[in-house]
């Protein structure tokens, strides 16, 4: 890569565009020093930092780099032992240290470090200068004055100066009052570092003292009365002490800074790195850039890429730049671009070249998608480089550049040649163009050239590894559209452009008659190819529109299905709420008939608890059914697929213990009528189909239980409830769920105690049970069982009354 290529591609203008976003002189220096790298790892690291900076800034973050001036002169002076900086230089370095410590703080939180790991590692390089900053902060005021609090001695001296000034003022004011006839103006002023009063020149003998000057008119004499000379001398002495103390304070501060000079320089370098990163990030956001991928196989892809300098130039006029898209793979590394003059061929070369250089400087690329190799060389011959002083014509300058390229090119390389072979006899130029492009093709370099030569276009359509492309020309408006069309060569349209430039028609007709027939046929062939390409593109657009319409239709169907599912879910919720209300109403009606008030209150509490339990059970049923695929969200009970019971329905008898699968609850079979079973669950009766129950145990094998009977008008509540539960073999979650159910059932049935068997083991089940019992609303207290009931392997629970 050389300066001529950078100049041809206007890399300097790109860097200046980037430099608009820096906030410090340090950052600007770093931006201006930017050069494309050929180290892939270095490029990847720089691109990742740019990506993190752009994302951090897009989220509203900032680095707080404002207010920093160039610290280099101060740092250079500080490196000289015994030198003292002026107060403003000290303030500059104080600001530098403060900003560096601020950056450390920004990237200290774990969440920020996770989102921006590379920026965090960059911030970690900043030394901890907190103690140094606290030692110098506040000693120098923003205007450069030394603060009274900089040292106790300085505070004492300045207090004495203030006291002396006050005494002198009072004394001089008394003289003014006593010698009113001689006073020109009743003020106390300052001359030659001493306090004086203005005396009328014709009356100056009335106030003996030292004359320190006359006014411009000579009518006023500034006199220091003899009575205040000693006091003025005292102030002069105190001022000298103040200057000595200030010098001592500044030297002390500078010595502290000098002792930390390497750390301060490191902080300055990191601030420059952060300023460069945030400039790249803001640049990426401003021009809607994307991070480029680095290809391994030499392939090049740019989708909707824009020439960033052209876009910036057109922004003020409101004109949008036309993006280009092109792709070259490892098998096709050469692209020949043809088409009319002023159609955008040169812009394509510069867009590709700038994108490659920008990526290798760690910048994002202004495109929708970009994949670029890491080029060791980017060589460009663009523009008219004729020079009268150097005795170079357009053609000879062009040939000199091509010769130099041929002598140094070493893949991976990107070669960009504008109007290859131009400036000489068309036949010789065409042959030369083919030979030049073919030479670079055989070197393996990625080569993009522009041309008007039909010979080169035809060769490109036949040669292996070479592709044609053209900038579009609108035959209807006789104007270029600036679109790049891959796979088809373009006509130069010289006569059409001449007509647009108002060349007389007679000249155009004469020129058309002089064109070789083969050339005319070639032009017509290219036009037909262009028409076919347009038709192909139109067909692709139509297919894309149909695909989008189909996607929109399926999206609408999905939304309709979701709406129906939501309606069914709402219906389920409504039915559940209605069932709960009916249960509560029936409970209230039955409770009115209970004669024993105490018993009525107990049953009322049980009913309220049971109502809450039903809500919880219903919610659990719904979630478990959804999770198992039995009941989809919003699908009602009748839409659910049937579940086969695990136990043998033929063996079920009245009094047997069973589990109703649809609600995941245990109960006792109270009656059997055909395939319809009535199962008692505490105070509730549940009707279930044989296929919906799982046999657990015969009535004779039932676990210890309690039977509660409440006599009431029109009501008989019987419940056989387990008062012992065995958790051995379950995990902690299963055990908690089982104990929770048993507690609710036992409480509703009026049981006083239950026994929970959890075994000894590692104590996991015992701890899980204890954690559940501590906050359970039905539990009065609990403790480990006595030795005769299992000791530490079981827990006895007393329930609330």
Structural summary, described in words:
It contains 23 helices and 25 strands. It has 801 residues and is an alpha+beta fold. The strands form 6 sheets. It has a 6-stranded mixed beta sheet with strand order 10-11-12-8-13-14, with helices on both faces. A 5-stranded antiparallel beta sheet has the order 18-17-16-15-19, with no helix packed on it. Strand 13 and strand 14 form a beta hairpin. Helix 22 crosses helix 23. The model is unreliable at 386-391, 628-650 and 700-720 (pLDDT under 50).
Which features would summarize this protein structure in a list?
alpha+beta, 801 residues, five-stranded antiparallel beta sheet
Q: State the separation between the terminal residues, measured CA to CA.
A: 91 Å
Determine the mean pLDDT: 82
Q: Note the overall shape.
A: flat
Instruction: List unreliable stretches of 5+ residues.
Output: 386-391, 628-650, 700-720
SS class: alpha+beta
Strand residue percentage = 15-25%
Number of β-strand runs: 25
What's the number of helices?
23
Describe the structure concisely:
The chain is built from 23 helices and 25 strands. With 801 residues, it is an alpha+beta fold.
Provide the fold topology:
Blueprint (H helix, E strand, L loop, with lengths): L2 H6 L2 H9 L5 H8 L7 H19 L13 H7 L8 H20 L3 H6 L1 H8 L5 H7 L15 H27 L10 E3 L2 E7 L8 E6 L5 E6 L3 H31 L1 H26 L6 E2 L5 E6 L2 H8 L8 E5 L5 E5 L6 H15 L9 E4 L4 E5 L12 H15 L4 E5 L8 H18 L2 E5 L3 H9 L3 E9 L4 E8 L7 H7 L4 H10 L2 H75 L5 H32 L28 E4 L4 E9 L2 E6 L2 E6 L3 E5 L7 E8 L2 E8 L1 E3 L5 H17 L4 E5 L6 H11 L4 E6 L9 E6 L2
Parallel strand pairs: 5-9, 8-12, 8-13, 10-11, 11-12, 22-23
Antiparallel strand pairs: 1-2, 2-4, 3-4, 6-7, 6-9, 13-14, 15-16, 15-19, 16-17, 17-18, 20-21, 23-25, 24-25
């Amino acid at each position: 890569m050389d300066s001529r290529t950078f100049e041809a591609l206007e890399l300097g203008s790109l860097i200046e565009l980037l430099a608009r976003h820096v906030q410090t002189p340090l950052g600007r220096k770093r931006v201006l020093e930017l050069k494309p790298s050929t180290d892939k790892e270095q490029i990847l690291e720089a691109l990742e930092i740019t990506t993190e900076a752009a994302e951090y800034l897009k989220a509203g973050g900032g680095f707080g780099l404002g207010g920093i001036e160039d610290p280099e002169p101060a740092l250079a002076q500080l490196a000289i032992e015994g030198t003292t900086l002026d107060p403003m230089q000290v303030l500059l370095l104080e600001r530098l240290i403060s900003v560096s410590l601020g950056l450390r703080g920004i990237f200290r939180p774990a969440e920020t470090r996770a989102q921006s790991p590379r920026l965090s590692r960059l911030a970690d390089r900043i030394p901890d200068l907190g103690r140094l900053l606290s030692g110098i902060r506040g000693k120098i005021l923003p205007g450069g004055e030394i603060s009274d609090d900089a040292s106790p001695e300085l505070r004492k001296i300045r207090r004495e100066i203030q006291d002396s000034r006050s005494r002198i003022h009072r004394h001089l004011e008394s003289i003014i009052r006593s010698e009113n006839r001689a006073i020109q103006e009743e003020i106390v002023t300052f001359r030659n570092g001493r306090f004086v009063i203005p005396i009328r020149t014709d009356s100056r003998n009335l106030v003996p003292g030292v004359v320190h000057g006359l006014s411009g008119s000579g009518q006023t004499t500034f006199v220091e009365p003899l009575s205040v000379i000693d006091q003025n001398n005292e102030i002069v002495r105190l001022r000298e002490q103040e200057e000595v103390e200030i010098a001592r304070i500044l030297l002390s501060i500078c010595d502290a800074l000098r002792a930390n000079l390497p750390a301060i320089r490191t902080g300055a370098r990191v601030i420059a790195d952060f300023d460069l990163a945030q400039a790249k990030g803001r640049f990426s956001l401003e021009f809607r850039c994307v991070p480029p991928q680095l290809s391994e196989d030499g392939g090049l892809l740019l989708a909707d890429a824009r020439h960033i300098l052209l876009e910036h130039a057109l922004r003020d006029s409101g004109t949008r730049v036309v993006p280009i898209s092109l792709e070259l793979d490892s098998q096709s590394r050469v692209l020949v671009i043809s088409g009319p003059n002023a159609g955008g061929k040169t812009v394509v070369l510069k867009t590709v070249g700038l994108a490659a250089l920008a990526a290798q400087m760690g910048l994002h690329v202004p495109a929708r998608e970009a994949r670029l190799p890491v080029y060791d060389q980017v060589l460009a011959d663009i523009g008219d480089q004729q020079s009268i002083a150097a005795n170079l014509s357009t053609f000879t300058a062009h040939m000199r550049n091509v010769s130099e390229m041929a002598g140094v090119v070493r893949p991976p390389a990107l070669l960009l040649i504008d109007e290859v072979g131009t400036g000489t006899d068309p036949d010789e130029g065409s042959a030369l163009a083919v030979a030049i492009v073919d030479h670079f093709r055989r070197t393996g370099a990625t080569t993009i050239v522009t041309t008007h030569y039909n010979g080169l276009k035809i060769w490109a359509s036949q040669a292996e590894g070479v592709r044609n492309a053209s900038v579009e020309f609108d035959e209807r408006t006789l104007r270029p559209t600036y679109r790049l069309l891959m796979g088809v060569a373009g006509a130069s349209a010289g006569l059409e452009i001449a007509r647009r430039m108002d060349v007389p028609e007679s000249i155009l007709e004469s020129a058309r008659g002089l064109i070789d027939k083969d050339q005319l046929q070639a032009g017509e062939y290219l036009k037909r190819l262009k028409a076919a390409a347009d038709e192909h593109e139109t067909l692709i657009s139509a297919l894309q529109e149909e695909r989008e319409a189909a996607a929109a239709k399926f999206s609408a169907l999905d939304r309709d299905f979701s709406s129906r599912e939501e309606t069914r879910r709402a219906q389920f919720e409504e039915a559940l709420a209605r069932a709960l209300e009916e249960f509560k109403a029936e409970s209230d009606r039955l409770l009115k008939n209970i004669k024993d008030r105490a018993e009525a209150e107990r049953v009322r509490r049980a009913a309220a608890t049971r109502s809450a339990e039903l809500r919880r059970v219903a919610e659990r049923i719904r979630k478990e059914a959804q999770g198992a695929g039995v009941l989809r969200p919003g699908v009602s009970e009748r839409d659910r697929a049937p579940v086969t019971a695990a136990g043998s329905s033929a063996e079920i008898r009245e009094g047997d213990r069973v589990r109703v699968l649809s609600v995941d609850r245990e109960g006792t079979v109270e009656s059997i009528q055909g395939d319809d079973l009535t199962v008692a669950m505490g105070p509730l009766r549940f009707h279930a189909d044989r296929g919906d129950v799982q046999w657990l145990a015969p009535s004779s094998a039932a676990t210890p239980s309690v039977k509660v009977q409440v006599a009431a008008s029109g009501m008989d509540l019987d419940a056989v409830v387990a008062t012992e539960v065995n958790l051995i073999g379950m995990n902690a979650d299963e055990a908690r769920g089982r104990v929770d159910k048993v507690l609710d059932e036992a409480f509703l049935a009026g049981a006083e105690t239950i026994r929970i068997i959890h075994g000894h083991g590692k104590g996991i089940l015992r701890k899980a049970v204890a954690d559940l019992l501590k906050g359970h609303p039905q539990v009065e207290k609990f403790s480990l069982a006595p030795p005769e009931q299992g000791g530490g392997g079981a827990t006895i629970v007393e329930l609330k009354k």
